[in-house]
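re: that complex we talked abt at group meeting.

here r the seqs, copy pasted straight from the sheet so there may be weird spacing, ignore it
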Amino acid sequence: MNLLQATDLFGGYGGGDILQGACLHLDKEEIVVIIGPNGAGKSSMMKAIFGLMPIRRGEVIFNDENINRVRPEDMVQRGIAYVPQERNVFSTLTVQENLEMGAYQLSGSLNERLERIYEIFPKLKDRRRQQAGLMSGGERQMVAIGRALMIDPLLLMLDEPTAGLSPLLISETFDRIRGIRDLGIGVLMVEQNARQALTMADRGYVMTTGMTRFHDTGAKLLANREIAEMFLGG
Amino acid sequence: MEIAGLVSYGVSFLIFVGIYGILALGLNMQWGFTGQFNIGVAGFFAVGAYSSAILTTAVSPNHLGGFGQHFLVGVAGAVIIAGLLGLLIGLITARLRTDYLAIATIGIAEILRLIVTNEDWLTNGVRGMAGIDRPFSIIGMDSAAGFLVLVCLAVVLVFFLVERARCSPWGRVLRAIRDNETAAAAVGKNVARFRLEAFVAGSAIMGLGGALYAHYYGFLSPEAFMPVYGTFLVWVMLIVGGSGNNRGALLGALVVWLIWSGTDFVTSAFVPDGLATQAGALRVLLIGVLLQVILLTRPQGILPEKAPPLTPGGGRRPR
Amino acid sequence: MLIDVIQLTIYGIVLGSILTLGAIGISLIFGILRFAHFAHGDLMALGAYIGLGFLTVSGWPVWFALPAGMMGAAAVAIVLDQAVYRRIRRTQPVILLISSFGIALILRSAIQIFWGPSVQNYSTGIQLPWRLGDIVINPDHVWIVLASVVLVIAMHLFLTRTRMGKALRAMSDNMDLALVSGIPAERVIMWTWVMGGCLAAAAGVMLGMDTRLHPMMGWNVLLPLFAAAIVGGIGRPYGAIAGGMLIGLAMELSTLVIEPSYKPAVAFAIMVLALVIRPQGIVRGAH
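got the structure back, here u go
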């Protein structure tokens, strides 16, 4: 029984549908990666799941509940956290304040949660009083992901978490994501660094023109010559 | 009530409907056509009125005057000066977002009101400017009924012009800009210039309304151009009647002036004289509530906007 | 001449303190709700009059007008949002401007109906001004500036030490991310109106103390309020402090060369200058 199951999704903003029958599923403690060319609908897929894009047909089931109509602000309560690709921190708030906002809806000890995040991202603890907008790209990324982890989510959705990062930081980020999965959290990721992402993912989906065309384990997708040529640059 | 009294009231009523209708048509060119918030209508109204008055009145120790020009020169002056004022404001605010334009127009209207109130040498301040003549007295048209004919002609003329503008290619570009600015800019339209043109045209029309008011009433004082009377009523008229819609502008003028005058009737009949200003405030409150109700329930107004035919007499473009 | 400058500077600081409180409210509302609240001046006036009403009924000392006005205005602000603004911002946010213009008139008319059209005053009794040489300082001036400082500090503490205050800043910073993070938008909005209403009423009461109460008092100060907010960078409450003081000082000092009636014009001119030269405001900072 899957944690997340999206079946036959059609949806878009007015005009035509961006998603044309896309499907995916995800279990606890899995890293699932969505790759594909620009404009394939990868980010749209995540937005549809999170309620940021209207779904015209198909359904999304999370933890046995149909969440088609759930608004983004109510997703947090269900244990789904989302990190957008751009503008993913509160620039005028400090690091610690950013994290606090992540757990706004929840009662219980804020300090415990903060400490857990600082364990995963020790650098953030040193910088916790710094304004998020003044930090480097890599540090901002940590704040963004940290904010999402504050609710102890069941599912973490990341939209291109390594965009614009140096190779060293990309490796670090993927390491951390593995660590997050090992904590028992399911991770759904859209990635442009397809090769590296597939190397560490459990499973992957290849999307083109709004549909999920190929689906397999990370390793098998990497080994697939056709896919390698079309999407991974040979 | 005597018949003569009723007729005289009716004529005055219709003249005001006409003047306000013209103001509403001017506002429609700015708000309805291009989505520009002019919350300083009273300023253009005042500028038109005072310009025409100054140009046409005789020499006076109380205010600027003595040009003794003909009514039509006064009107032309009003239109041009109001249009220039619109140009000035438009140039400053051309690239600013809506809220800033609104604030700037409020500012201009307030400053104009300050000038009109304080610069006695120009306008005789709060004591007001009197002695503004009705036109065409030579042919005996200076009665109220004669002026009504004049106003009707003006309304027809302005309506004709704005309707032609609406159906023209220029009007279509304006609507495209209002509905989707980025798309219009993407096809190479100079958005700022079109907006400015519409703003200036609307301002000029409001100037005409001001001139007509000056020559009908014969007397100008800053009181008449307070935000309530000069700006707010016009906005309510446009929204109630149907914004984006020239017919709606005129219908709104009729309906709202009817309510405004009607409440005047009722309150002067039932409210003791001592509470006159309170009664006036109550009337404003009612119109204010009416606006909110319309905005909440039927924001498109009585006459919703209809897209003009793509080709004259041809089919409609789907909205 | 120097005496005049110092005297006017004192008046400017007082006026600046009052404008600051109003401008902060405008910036808070703009930052979260993304529209220029044209009824803010009249909300200030309503706060002043509610304070007056409370004093008339209770007979308590003058400074109690402040909490009374603040509570009254906050309540009115919440009602306005629930009854009118909330529905409009869900369907047609663009007409919020004209709606708030209409609300301004409704508030002004209500003031005239209940309190009449003539000038009124808080009865502060005879005040002996302090004199330093030729310079005159009213004790009220000092209290107004002090009260403003206290309120600004209180607001600062609210925005930086409370969860709701931080949520307010977060929403103003990045609305989409705030929703994604699960911050309860409607509750934050309600608090925005409470803060805006309270600060507006405080400014109104103090304006009434410094000058007098009159139904047009709110509308007359609306331009300077917006000038202060815009110069400080609209949407940035801390910028509004600099903007408020700048506009207040400019307005008072300008009377050295310009007729006092044109003070709002000075505010307007500075605002236009700011818009043309530096649309994001004079106070540096990320936004």
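couple things i noticed - The first helix of chain C runs from residue 2 to 33. The first strand of chain C starts at residue 130 and ends at 132.
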